[in-house]
Amino acid sequence: MYNTNDTELIEMITDSREYEKGYRLLIGQYKERLYWHIRRIVKNHDDADDILQNTFIKVIKNIEKFKQESSLQTWLYRIATNESISFINNKKHVSADSLDNNVLTVVSDDEVDYENVKLKLSKAIDLLPHKQKIVFNLRYYDEMSYQEIANITHTSVGALKSSFHLAVKKIEDFLKKEI
């Protein structure tokens, strides 16, 4: 798909003649990345789909207010992150409890069960506090710079580095015990 820059997308969306095309391009460019960002926070496909829809609805309603003080991607991730956190807070469900029901075992001492490792990594991430989980996911999976994450989370770069370091340490400790 043709990749449009932020300015072009916003111009298309705010132009009544190109509004639909602009939104199709915006969704085409960001849907998958935002979905996986949300999915890593909420873990459930259906919930992630709902939150993604809510994210794009908010974008549609508020695009006129976007001041372009940050990149469009940063703004979209901020909305997706806030929607995910709101969802979790409203649901008040600790996903770690449901993961505890999955007893995982390594097939043998000689071979590594990569699915098991991925599940344990997922469980370790789920056990992190919300802020550390978001910072870890954005840095590790989305490979964002600390500055980009700072723009999304409204947190200082120093605080983010500390959160990421703590998250990595907690994950390492968890995995050492589990694997």
Low-pLDDT stretches are: 93-111
N-to-C span: 41 Å
On the 0 to 100 scale, the average pLDDT is: 83
Helix content: over 70%
Q: What is the name of the CATH architecture of the largest domain?
A: Orthogonal Bundle
Number of E strands? 0
| CATH-derived topology of the largest domain | Rna Polymerase Sigma Factor, Chain: A
Number of helices: 9
Name the CATH homologous superfamily of the largest domain: RNA polymerase sigma factor, region 2, helix turn helix motif
Describe the largest sheet.
none
Strand content: under 5%
Gross geometry = elongated
Structure description:
The protein is built from 9 helices and no strands. The radius of gyration is 18 Å and the shape is elongated. It is mostly helical. About 11% of the residues have low confidence.
In short:
With 179 residues, this protein is mainly α. The protein contains 9 helices and no strands. It is 74% helix and 0% strand.
Any key phrases for this structure?
179 residues, mainly alpha, Rna Polymerase Sigma Factor, Chain: A, Arc Repressor Mutant, subunit A, 2 domains, 9 helices, elongated
